[in-house]
Design goal:
binds guanosine-5'-monophosphate, binds zinc ion, 5-stranded antiparallel β-sheet, 5 strands, HIT family, subunit A, alpha+beta, single chain
Length: 136
Amino acid sequence: MPNTDCLFCKIVADDIPAIRVAEDERTLAFMDINPWTRGHALVIPKTHATDLYTIDPDDLSACALTAQRLAERARDNLGAQGVNLLNSCGSAAWQTVFHFHLHVIPRYLGDPLTVPITAQPGDIAEITAAAQELRA
Ligand code: 5GP
Ligand code: ZN
């Protein structure tokens, strides 16, 4: 069911405009209005789901396939030298629009994006403890 308060459901319904780049039975892809790099697009399921926890597995698969198709087009049509896929699940993970989406971010050598953290070697005991909790 569409969520009447949801921005991306309104885009699916064509109630608000978006620059569409791909569409199939389950998914829609359109340009992000605040692009991190040239060609930055968003892939969403047409059926509303808040986030990674709640999206239908077949919709998730379909979104991944659409993202792969867009990544190929970014490489072949835009000359991207790489692509980042990003999903933010929850406010703590930077999610701001609560309709599942995959960011497809074409990357170009020398583009201004940087990783927002300096990686440091971790404590092996703590890594192992976290792994144990993840396996449970
Ligand atoms: P999030 O922060 O949830 O991972 O990503 C939401 C994305 O949606 C942001 O990158 C933001 O620029 C984009 N966005 C927000 N409002 C609109 C809109 O009205 N149209 C389009 N095309 N993108 C939007
Ligand atoms: Zn929605």
